[in-house]
Amino acid sequence: MVRRLPEKNVTLLEVTIPTGRPHQIRIHLSYAGFSLVGDPLYLPGGVPRADGFDKESAARPGECGYLLHSWKIRFPHPQRGEDVEVVSPPPPSLDPEQGR
User: What CA–CA distances, in Å, run from 11 to 7, 50, 74?
Assistant: First the structure.
């Protein structure tokens, strides 16, 4: 946990994932009781929605308002082999100091 602001019902987490499998962060956090705000697919407990979820009309990341941001990504350059690191500061909507 990076920061907890109970008065705003916000917890900012830093999560490292080794594989990048689809929905990995969303499922694990939901299962642990930290569902992403606005997630249209997973209910608390990591359970997929069964109430008429339609994949064709499902929102894509950035469209639906669920709060997930990749702050930093590191990977080996495909030709040179050295690590490439890209950092993207969170937008104001994800900064607990500025509010949502």
Answer: 10, 27, 24
In sequence order, what are the residues at sequence separation of 6 or more whose Cβ sits closer than 8 angstroms to the Cβ of residue 27? Answer: 42, 46
Mean pLDDT of all residues in 18-46: 78
DSSP assignment of 5-18 equals EGGGTEEE-----S
Residue percentage of the chain with pLDDT more than 90: 12
Distance in angstroms (rounded) separating the CA atoms of residues 76 and 62: 26
Whole-number percent of the chain with pLDDT over 70: 72
Q: Would the pTM of this model clear 0.70, i.e. be above it? A: no
Please tell me the distance from the alpha carbon of residue 55 to that of residue 19, in angstroms, as a whole number: 24
